[in-house]
Design a protein that fits this description.
The protein is an alpha+beta fold. Helix content is 36%, strand content 24%. The chain is built from 4 helices and 8 strands; from the N terminus they run αββααβαβββββ. The longest helix is centred in the first third of the chain and has 30 residues. It is elongated and about 65 Å long.
Length: 156
């Protein structure tokens, strides 16, 4: 009710409870701490989810050597289609180390092999094998060198 004594005691400063004035800032602080306790774990879970959703390359030297050797073998055994300028390797012909990467597709080009582990509209994530980096087909800044003639790329 307007003009009521209780309404007059409330203002911008806060409210009266048990004869004490409690500022809105104090109440807001209590509520914001509760929100922070809930928000921090949610932010961490979202960050972990995003990190795990994006593929990452292996850095194991033994595995990299095996992948490179198998990529060389694919280049030698899969002739390039002159019209398409590439040769898609059927899944049942993927060698074990390459198959262990769980690729979506494997393609042999002149001078390189592309092993795409997660497709995306601009190339996705995956490995490239090329004795000469100029044959990788994407911009040089899209690739990071893993050694053994293998390179890693993300969307670029």
């Amino acid at each position: 009710m307007p003009g009521h004594a209780r309404d007059d005691q409330r203002g911008l400063a806060g409210t009266h409870r048990n004869g004490k004035l409690h500022s809105m800032g104090e109440q807001g602080d209590v509520r914001s701490h509760g929100c922070l306790r809930l928000a921090i774990p949610i932010v961490i879970l979202v960050a972990l989810g995003l990190y795990s959703a994006v593929p990452h390359p292996t850095h194991n030297p033994k595995r990299l050597r095996a992948i490179a050797a198998e990529a060389r073998h694919l280049m030698a055994t899969h002739p390039i289609n002159p019209i398409k300028q590439a040769s898609d390797v059927p899944k049942d012909q993927w060698p074990p180390a390459i198959a262990g990467l769980k690729p979506y597709y494997v393609t042999v080009y002149r001078g390189s092999v592309q092993i795409v582990t997660k497709p995306f509209f601009d190339g996705g994530w995956g490995y490239g094998f090329a004795p000469d980096k100029r044959n990788l087909g994407m911009l040089p800044e899209c690739w990071s060198d893993l050694g053994e003639g293998l390179f890693w790329h993300g969307p670029c």
